[in-house]
Amino acid sequence: MKKAVNGRAPYATASERETLNPREALDILETRARESEDYIIRNADVGSAVFEYLAEYGAPATRQAVAANPATPARINRLLAEDAAEEVRAELAAKIARLMPGLEARESQEVVTLTLATLEVLARDSAAKVRAILADEIKHLDCVPREVALRLAHDVEDLVAAPILEYSPLLSDADLMEIIAGGQAREALAVIARRRPLSEDVSDRLVQSLDVPAVAALLVNPDARMRKETLDRIVEEAEAIESWHEPLVLRADLSARAIRRIGGFVGASLLEQLVARGDLSDATRAHLNRRLRARLEMGEAEGGAENAAQLVAAAKAQGTLDDGFVENAAASGNRETVTLALASLAQVPEGTVRKMLGHRGAKPVVALVWRAHLSMRTAFKIQTSVMKLSGRELLPARGGINFPLSKEEMRWHLAYFDIPV
C-alpha cells in the first residue's frame, strides 16, 4: 500500500484505476449535468443570466423545465418560443396562458409586451400540438389579444380551432357567421352549434348550411336561441334525417304546427313522447293520439302477407285506404302493407310494385305514388322508411309539396315497368 505524500493521498496507478469506455464516461457527465441544471432550475433563485444560459445551452429536458418555470424572465420565454424542441414550446404554451390573467396589473409594460409577443409566436407555431395546447388553455380567457383568438379559431386543425370556437368569449356573432360562411372544415360547424349561449342569427346560419351534425348539436343545445321560422325549416327537412328526430321531439319551443308535422314522421316511441307533452292543446293531443293508435295498430297487424292483405282490404272497404293509411304503414316500416296498398290504389300488379320498391331508384316510386293519386309527402315517406334510400338517393318534393317530376317524366318511368299510361 502506498504511503501518503505531504498529507495527500497518492494517485492510483494505471493498473489500479477503473476502466470506463468513452460512451459510459459521456453518459455519466451528461446525467450529472442534467441533474445539476434541474436542481438549479427548481430550487434556486439563480437570476436571469443563468436562466438565459440554460435556455440556450441546456439539454432539452432542462430547457423544458425552464419553459415550465413561472419565474423564468419574460425575455427568456420569448427566446424559448422559438426553441427547436416541440416539447419545450408545448410546455411554454401551457405556462404562458396561465400568466395572462392579471398580467398588466402586476407586471411592467416591457414584460407585458414580451409576454404578448411570446403568445403570438406560439399561436403561429408550426406544430399543431403546441397550438392546440395554447388554444385549450386560453379558450375561456378574455384577456388575450382578440387577434390571437381569431387566428386559432381559423386554424385548419380541428383540434386547435374547436376549443376557441366553442368557448372563447372574444368571438363575435359576425366572426362566427364568417367562419360558417367561409366553408371551414365541417366539423367546426357542430362545435359552433354547441356554444352557450348562441344567438338567433348564428343559429339561422347554421341551419342554412343544412349540415346534419351541426343542426343535431344545435337542437340539443338548451342555450341556442332559434326563431320560429328557423325551427320550422328544420322540421321540414327532418323527415329524411333520423338523427334529428329525437332532439326535435325534446325541444320545448315547438309550435303546434311543428308538433303535428313531427308526429307524421317519427317512430311510435317518439310519437308517445310527443303525446305526453304538457303544452299540447286538446286538438293537437287528439290528432297525435289518432296517429299513435294507427301506428300501433299497423304494427300489430303486420304479421305477414295475409294480415297485410286483410288490413288493406278492410281499409278499402271502410274508405280509409288513402294518404294517411299508406303514410302510417310506411312510417311503421310495413313494406308488405305499403306494397299491397299501392297495388290496389294504382291498379298495378303486386309483383310490379315489389320490383319498383326494390329498384333503389326514387323516380319510379314517385311516379307510382302519383298514379295512385297520393301525395308527394307519402312518396317521400316511402323513400325514407320503406326503401331506406340515403340522402343522395332521395327525391324530395318541389316547393315543399309538389311532385318534382313532370307528368311526361312520370309516365316514362311507369312505361319502363310496363304500366299502361
Q: What percentage of the residues does DSSP assign to strands (E)?
A: under 5%
Helix content: 55-70%
- Overall form: elongated
State Rg.
35 Å
Mean pLDDT: 86
How many β-strand runs? Answer: 0
SS field, number of helical segments: 26
Order of helices and strands: HHHHHHHHHHHHHHHHHHHHHHHHHH
Q: Sheet bearing the most strands, described?
A: none
Going by helix content, strand content and strand pairing, the class is mainly alpha
**What distance lies between the first and last C-alpha atoms, to the nearest angstrom?**
122 Å
Stretches where pLDDT is under 50 for at least 5 consecutive residues are: 4-9, 11-17
Plain-language structure description:
- It is elongated and about 100 Å long.
- About 3% of the residues have low confidence.
- The protein is an all-alpha fold and 421 residues long.
- The chain contains 26 helices and no strands.
- It starts with 21 loop residues before the first helix and ends in a 5-residue tail after the last helix.
- Among the domains are: 129 residues, no CATH class; 115 residues, no CATH class.
Question: Key terms for this structure?
Answer:
421 residues, mainly alpha, 0% strand
Fold topology:
Blueprint: H1 22-43, H2 48-57, H3 60-68, H4 74-80, H5 86-99, H6 103-106, H7 109-123, H8 128-138, H9 146-153, H10 158-167, H11 173-181, H12 187-193, H13 200-209, H14 212-219, H15 228-238, H16 245-249, H17 256-263, H18 268-275, H19 282-301, H20 305-318, H21 323-331, H22 335-346, H23 350-357, H24 362-371, H25 376-385, H26 407-416
